[in-house]
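re: that chain from earlier
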Amino acid sequence: MTILVTGSSGHLGEALMRRLRAEGKAARGIDIKPAPFTDLVGSIADRAFVAGAMMDVTAVIHPATLHKPHVATQTRQDFVDTNISGTLVLLEAAVAAGVGAFIFTSTTSTFGDALVPPAGAPAAWITEEVTPVPKNIYGATKLAAEMLCELFARRERLPVLVLRTSRFFPEADDSAILRERYATANVQANELLYRRVDVEDVATVHLLALERAAALGFRKYIISATTPFDVADLAALRRDAPGVIRRLFPECAELYDARGWSLFSEIDRVYVNALARRELGWTPRYDFAHVLDSLRAGKDFRSPLALAVGSKGYHDRVFEAGPYPVEAR
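^ sequence. v structure.
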């Protein structure tokens, strides 16, 4: 009864391995890089390696991926090899092993250009019904991998749940403007209003998905902290986001001023997690209300698990212009 976790040297992979082992569950971590929570080192695109790693496995959680930060440093073929071919290899091996559940970690980046409304339009209300419009090779390959997951669920009767996660990395934003105007913690606190989730909540929903996959068959879910906004707020969020936030959280101004923080002047999209909360029984703990409670108490708003996993970076080298280079491909 072993759970296979891919990408176990990364943020989410390590978080999952920590949770599973803390709960006394048998878990096997695999990654291309060695790390304390990685049991086997190898590529998910290597069929022989994956077949060996799948021995005695009853469920798979698959976060391993090339990410957006790799778009400027890896080729498009690298993304295809890891995100599409690697997922295909895992799906085929899971079917051959008779695995009972396959949880695929996808991304809200699959929505791409659908996330940014035209100037003057209300903020976008992003649910599972929004049609993805990938804007780079990362989003395109993750969407293709989702389609493979659906194919295997339909044709091979493999229970597969796709979790489209929003931001949970602790690293500084790639935007030089944001880094200049706001402290990293300020940016990430603001993002919990509409486009971020704590890694502990992400780990929790993955484990809930494992329990429910067999009954659900195939589903896609948006995984983000619960937003305090509703559809009626969308127009105002583009014009005056601080006004909306201060109405909902009157104490925010004083708590932010004490830290020298500020709110974003506008918000262009809102991720909606209602389906995941309803169907998976998920209750995210680390939202904007938690941020304010933490500021009031003088504590870090990040979860203990997020602090334990820490920052990993995405590259072996340091870049002068930011945490990673940005280039559209």
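The chain has one domain: 2-309.
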